[in-house]
């Protein structure tokens, strides 16, 4: 059944872990719902794992809406979160709201996700007061990889850790319904999670987050060449896909495919008339 933000608060209170997985299309979202995922994330990671870009910076509103619509169709009964892409919530607050409303209305999502604190805090507040549930995203924020100097673990020093704890509290205060924590030391995750009422959802952030999120293509090894240290390979579909395609190539070359059972035929009298 479609859970709500208050269900997730309750899950945190009761110590029940929240599961989130990315999906960017109909079949994946359908698989996720079938498997009992609590939240489907149409992440801007779509740019990297589906569109082949080298960062999430190139992802557009149209990309997110295109994939969001497809994912919605596949998981109609799962809480759907759509990432706001790079640059779409850093102009005026009004422009940020316009973009978030567009995503919500065109994808029928339950929430949007934005990266960072600081200048993004007023955005979280603005969207939340407009009725849009917002998930914050702290630690390694891929849209800022250029400024961070790459995809590195964050919050490793006292100073950085203290800032992250404060940022997380500010996100909660601004109205965020959850906070994604990406690539931070597990001890910091424990501290942040204990400091908040809203659930934390970790990726590369250890076991003490209130929930976990992974990128679908990474966890089933579907076309990804570099998989980060924090990902467990829960399946390896890439291998069976290549095996299947190679078999197809072979069978076409040696004429074992298509077989008679894959072919259509004509009635005998029609054949007679055709060939005499
Ligand atoms: O885009 C994405 O997949 C994400 C998750 C890694 C949290 O933001
Ligand atoms: Na993202």
UniProtKB/TrEMBL annotation:
<feature type="binding site">
    <location>
        <position position="113"/>
    </location>
    <ligand>
        <name>3-methyl-2-oxobutanoate</name>
    </ligand>
</feature>
<keyword id="KW-0479">Metal-binding</keyword>
<dbReference type="GO" id="GO:0008168">
    <property type="term" value="F:methyltransferase activity"/>
</dbReference>
<feature type="binding site">
    <location>
        <begin position="44"/>
        <end position="45"/>
    </location>
    <ligand>
        <name>3-methyl-2-oxobutanoate</name>
    </ligand>
</feature>
<feature type="binding site">
    <location>
        <position position="115"/>
    </location>
    <ligand>
        <name>Mg(2+)</name>
    </ligand>
</feature>
<dbReference type="InterPro" id="IPR015813">
    <property type="entry name" value="Pyrv/PenolPyrv_kinase-like_dom"/>
</dbReference>
<comment type="pathway">
    <text>Cofactor biosynthesis; (R)-pantothenate biosynthesis; (R)-pantoate from 3-methyl-2-oxobutanoate: step 1/2.</text>
</comment>
<keyword id="KW-0808">Transferase</keyword>
<feature type="binding site">
    <location>
        <position position="83"/>
    </location>
    <ligand>
        <name>Mg(2+)</name>
    </ligand>
</feature>
<dbReference type="GO" id="GO:0005737">
    <property type="term" value="C:cytoplasm"/>
</dbReference>
<keyword id="KW-0566">Pantothenate biosynthesis</keyword>
<keyword id="KW-0460">Magnesium</keyword>
<protein>
    <recommendedName>
        <fullName>3-methyl-2-oxobutanoate hydroxymethyltransferase</fullName>
        <ecNumber>2.1.2.11</ecNumber>
    </recommendedName>
</protein>
<feature type="binding site">
    <location>
        <position position="44"/>
    </location>
    <ligand>
        <name>Mg(2+)</name>
    </ligand>
</feature>
<dbReference type="GO" id="GO:0032259">
    <property type="term" value="P:methylation"/>
</dbReference>
<keyword id="KW-0489">Methyltransferase</keyword>
<comment type="subunit">
    <text>Homodecamer; pentamer of dimers.</text>
</comment>
<dbReference type="GO" id="GO:0015940">
    <property type="term" value="P:pantothenate biosynthetic process"/>
</dbReference>
<comment type="similarity">
    <text>Belongs to the PanB family.</text>
</comment>
<dbReference type="GO" id="GO:0000287">
    <property type="term" value="F:magnesium ion binding"/>
</dbReference>
<dbReference type="GO" id="GO:0003864">
    <property type="term" value="F:3-methyl-2-oxobutanoate hydroxymethyltransferase activity"/>
</dbReference>
<dbReference type="InterPro" id="IPR003700">
    <property type="entry name" value="Pantoate_hydroxy_MeTrfase"/>
</dbReference>
<comment type="function">
    <text>Catalyzes the reversible reaction in which hydroxymethyl group from 5,10-methylenetetrahydrofolate is transferred onto alpha-ketoisovalerate to form ketopantoate.</text>
</comment>
<feature type="binding site">
    <location>
        <position position="83"/>
    </location>
    <ligand>
        <name>3-methyl-2-oxobutanoate</name>
    </ligand>
</feature>
<dbReference type="Pfam" id="PF02548">
    <property type="entry name" value="Pantoate_transf"/>
</dbReference>
<dbReference type="InterPro" id="IPR040442">
    <property type="entry name" value="Pyrv_kinase-like_dom_sf"/>
</dbReference>
<feature type="active site" description="Proton acceptor">
    <location>
        <position position="182"/>
    </location>
</feature>
<keyword id="KW-0963">Cytoplasm</keyword>
